[in-house]
Specification:
The protein is mainly α. Helices cover 92% and strands 0% of the residues. The protein has 2 helices and no strands. The longest helix is centred in the middle third of the chain and has 45 residues. 0% of the residues are buried.
């Protein structure tokens, strides 16, 4: 009986679930960073095209 109590004390799973939530949060953060980087590159190309359009219209 005494040995069972020691085993149950070391078998807590609270830390595992918080680690899983941390990994999920990390994955979501990585996806957001990649998406925003891709949007930034696309917007940069768009605004460069608009700028070139205005520059050629002024000549």
């Amino acid at each position: 009986m005494n040995g069972d109590r020691r085993v149950s004390r070391w078998k807590r799973e609270d830390g595992v679930t918080s680690m899983e939530y941390g990994l999920i949060g990390l994955l979501i953060a990585i996806v957001i960073i990649v998406a925003l980087t891709n949007i930034g590159v696309s917007l940069d190309g768009f605004f460069n095209a608009v700028q070139q359009g205005f520059a050629s219209a002024g000549n």
